[in-house]
Amino acid sequence: VIQKLLGERETNFDNEFITNIVDAYLDEMNQHGQRSTYFSKENLDSLVQDLFVAGTETISNTLHWTIFYIVAHPHVQVNIHEEIDRIIGKDRPPCDKDRSRMFYIEAVLLESMRCHCAGPILLPRATTQDITFHNYFIPKDTFILVNMWSAMKDEQHWSEPEKFEPERFLDENHRLRNVNHPAMMPFSIGKRACT
User: Fold this and answer.
1) Residues 75-122: pLDDT tens digits?
2) Residue 142 pLDDT > 90, yes or no?
3) I need a labelling partner for 140 at 20 to 30 A (CA). Which of 19, 101, 104, 151 fits?
C-alpha cells in the first residue's frame, strides 16, 4: 500500500506545489540525484513507514491501555463521567475549549501514558562528541538508547509506580500538576520530542 501511494505521489510530483514531507523528500531526491546516499527511495519508504507507525500505533496503543485502565478501575469511570457532566453537561456536544478545563480526564490520559508508555525505548541517538555523563565516559559516535519505561516506573520519582493513580497528576484543588515532571516523558523530551 505504501509503495503504491509513494509511486502515485512520485508520478504526480510538482516541485512548485510542495505540501507535505513526502513532496519535500522527493524534491531533495530530485535536486541531489544519484549523489545523495541519504535521499533514496529506500529511505523514503522507511521514513513513511516510521511516520505511519509513530502516528497511528502509538495513539492506538495509548487508547487501548486507557480504556483498559478505565474498565479495571470503576471509580475512574465514575469520576470521568462526573467531570463530563459538570463541564459539558447533557445539552451540547463537547468543544475544543472544554479540554483545558477537564483536568481529571487529562490526568487519566497522563497516568495511562506513564503506566504503559507507547514507545518504551526512544529511537537511537548518537553522541556528537566525547562526553562524561554521571561518571560514565561515552565516546563520540556512540549509539544511545534511552529507556523511558524505567524513568516512568522509577520509585525515586513516583510513589507506588506500578499503581494506576490519575490523582498523582492533580493538586489539592484538582488542577493539573506534574505535567512537566522530569520523569514523565511518554513522547521523549527536548527538541527531538514527538508532539
Assistant:
1) 999 999 999 999 999 999 999 999 999 999 999 999 999 999 887 887
2) yes
3) 151
Q: What's the helix, strand, coil split of the chain in %, to 5?
A: 50, 10, 40
The total number of structural domains in the chain stands at 1
Domain contains 152 = no
At residue 174's C-alpha, the angle toward residues 172 and 176, to 5°, is 105
Q: Is 4 helix (H, G, I), strand (E, B) or coil?
A: helix
What's residue 109's pLDDT? 95
Q: What is the pLDDT of residues 15-33, one digit of tens each?
A: 888 888 888 888 888 887 7
Q: In which domain, by residue range, is 1 found?
A: 1-55
Residue-wise pLDDT tens digits, 112-133:
999 998 878 877 888 999 999 9
Write the CA distances from 92 to 61, 84, 87, 89, 147, integer angstroms.
29, 11, 11, 7, 43
Classified as helix, coil or strand, 109 is: helix
Task: Please give the radius of gyration of the chain, using alpha carbons only, rounded to the nearest integer.
Answer: 22
Residue 126 lies in a domain: no
Positions at the binding site for heme:
194
Look at residue 45 and tell me if it is in a domain.
Answer: yes
Residue numbers in the known binding site are: 194
Q: CA 43, CA 68: separation in Å to the nearest integer?
A: 36
pTM: 0.73
How far is Cα 61 from Cα 141, in angstroms, rounded to an integer? Answer: 32
